[in-house]
Amino acid sequence: MDRETRLFAESHFRGLRGRLPGGVCPTPDCVDFIENPDSFSYADFFKGYLLPNVPCVFSSAFTETWGSRRHWVTPSGKPNFDYLLRNYGDVLVPVANCGVREYNSNPKEYMPLREYINYWKEYIHGDYSSPRGCLYLKDWHLCRDSSAEGVFTLPVYFSSDWLNEYWDALGVDDYRFIYMGPTGTWSPFHADIFRSFSWSVNICGRKKWFFFPPGQEEALRDGHGGLPYDVTSPGLLNSRSCPLPLEVTQEAGEMVFVPSGWHHQVHNLEDTISINHNWVNGCNLANMWQFLQQELCAVQHEVGQWRDTMSDWHHHCQVIMRSCSGINFGEFYNFLKVIAERRLLILAKGMGPEVEGGEDSGPGPQQAAFDVSRIAEVLASVVAHPDFQKVDTCVFSPRPEELLQQLEEGVVATASL
After folding, report:
1. Cβ atoms 383, 406 nearer than 8 A
2. Beta-carbon count within 10 A of 182 CB
3. Of 13, 122, 197, 274, which residue is most buried, by most CB within 10 angstroms?
4. CB-based contact 175:167 (threshold 8 Å)
C-alpha cells in the first residue's frame, strides 16, 4: 500500500463515521473483468473493488505460472487424477453429498483422496450418476495438512489477510481450501464465514456463480425467516418479489473476488478443481464485528428463557456462540490483539518503502498504519459493548483498554507518515 492509497482509504472510513453502509445494495449490471496483470496494481484493486465491496473476475493470465495449473490438469484441461493420486492419494479429505440436504448445507464424511477419485472416475463412466449420490470434495485444508509449495502463489491483491495470518500464528487452523468435484456438484446459498472476503481460482473446469449484494438476501427469506437452500429452485426463479441474481461464469484459470457479505451459490459446470481462501482485513473488519454481534444476539434470544435461572448466563452465551460460530468475543479480542501487536512492531521498526509483493513480503509501514487505524476504531466499539464488558478480561494481556490506548497513540504518531 502506498501513502496515497492509505489516505484515500482513511478518508473513506472517516466518511462512514464508524457505521457500515446501510440499506440494500443495488445489483451491478455486470462484473468487471480484469485482463492484464501488468496494468492492474494493488491500488487499482483496493480503490476499485475492495473498498467499494464489489466483485470482479481476474483473467487466467494472473495464475498462468501456478504449479497446480501445470501439474493438476491434463493437456486436455481435465483433472490429472494420476498426479493427484501419486502426491495426495492417502490424504483424508472432507466430502459432501450434494444430493442430501442437512439444514441449509450438506452432510460430510471423510475418506482418502484415493477413494474419492475412484468414485469420481466411476461417476464419469456412469454418465455422471452414481448410487452413492453426487459427492463434492469441499474444504480440504491442503496448506495445513501437507506442503502446498509450488501449488499456487498468493496474489498481491489478497496479501493483506489477517484471518490466515492469525491462525498461522496460533498454528492450529487456516482458511485456505481446495474444492474438487464432477459436473453437477454445487454449494448451496450462503455468505462466507465471519463475513470474510474470499477469492476462488478454477485450476480446471468452469463454475456458475449466483451473487446477491448485501441486503438483497432479506427478500429471499421464507415465512420463518430462513434463507433459501437453492436460489435456482423454480419457486424462487418464478417469483416476481425476489431479486434477480448477478450471474457470473468463471472459466479455467480465472480468479473471482467475492466481496464481504455477498450471498452466493456456486455450481460446477464441468469437472472442476478450485483453490479458495477466506480472508479478513481492515476493509471488512467492521463487517466481521457486526456479524459477531448478530450471532451473539441470536444465541441470547434462543436461551433467553434461562437468563434469570442460569448462573453465569452471559458466559454460557459466549461458550455457545463459539461452538456455533467458531469464535466469540474473547477470541475476537485475541484476533485483534495478535494483528495489532504485529502492526505496531512494524511501525516501531520504521521499515523502509513498501514493495508490492506476494505472501512473503509482509505489510510495510503504510499498510501497518492503515491496519492500526482500523483496529483502533473497531476495538473502541468492542470495549464499549455491554456484552464484552461482561467478559472476564483479567486474563488478557494487554488489557483491552491498554491495547486501545497503544493503537490510538499509534494513529496519532503515523498521521504524517
Report:
1. no
2. 22
3. 197
4. yes
Burial of 147 (0-12, 13-18, 19+ CB in 10 A): exposed
CA 124 – CA 122 distance, rounded (Å): 5
HSE-CB for 339 with a 13 A CA cutoff? 30
Whether residue 22 has pLDDT greater than 80:
no
Sequence-distant (≥ 6) Cβ neighbours of residue 223 within 8 angstroms: none
- Distance of alpha carbon 115 from alpha carbon 110, whole angstroms: 10
pLDDT in tens, 264-289: 999 999 999 999 999 999 999 999 99
- Cell numbers describing residue 25: 445494495
Which range (158-162, 163-167, 169-173, 385-389) has the least confidence?
169-173
Give the amino acid at 304.
Answer: G
pLDDT tier at 353, thresholds 50, 70, 90 = low
237, amino acid identity: L
Say how many C-beta atoms besides its own lie within 10 A of residue 394's C-beta.
7
Name the grid cell of 353. 518503502
**How far apart (Å, rounded) are the C-alpha atoms in residues 180 and 183?**
10
The Cα 111–Cα 137 span in angstroms is: 10
pLDDT per residue as tens digits for the range 189-243: 999 999 999 999 999 999 999 999 999 999 999 989 999 999 999 888 777 778 8
Q: CB neighbours of 144 closer than 8 A, spacing ≥ 6?
A: 173, 174, 176
Q: What is the secondary structure of 183-249 as a DSSP string? A: TT-EEEEE--GGG-EEEEEEEES-EEEEEE-TTGGGGG--TTSPPPS-TTSHHHHT-TTSPPPEEEE
Give the whole-angstrom CA distance, residue 125 versus residue 131: 13
Identify which of 260, 262, 289 has the alpha carbon closest to the alpha carbon of residue 374. 289
Residue at 233: amino acid letter: S
Burial class (CB in 10 A: 0-12, 13-18, 19+), 125: exposed
Q: What share of the chain is helix, strand, coil (3-state, %, to 5)?
A: 40, 20, 40
* pLDDT reported for residue 357: 47
d(CA 200, CA 158): 11
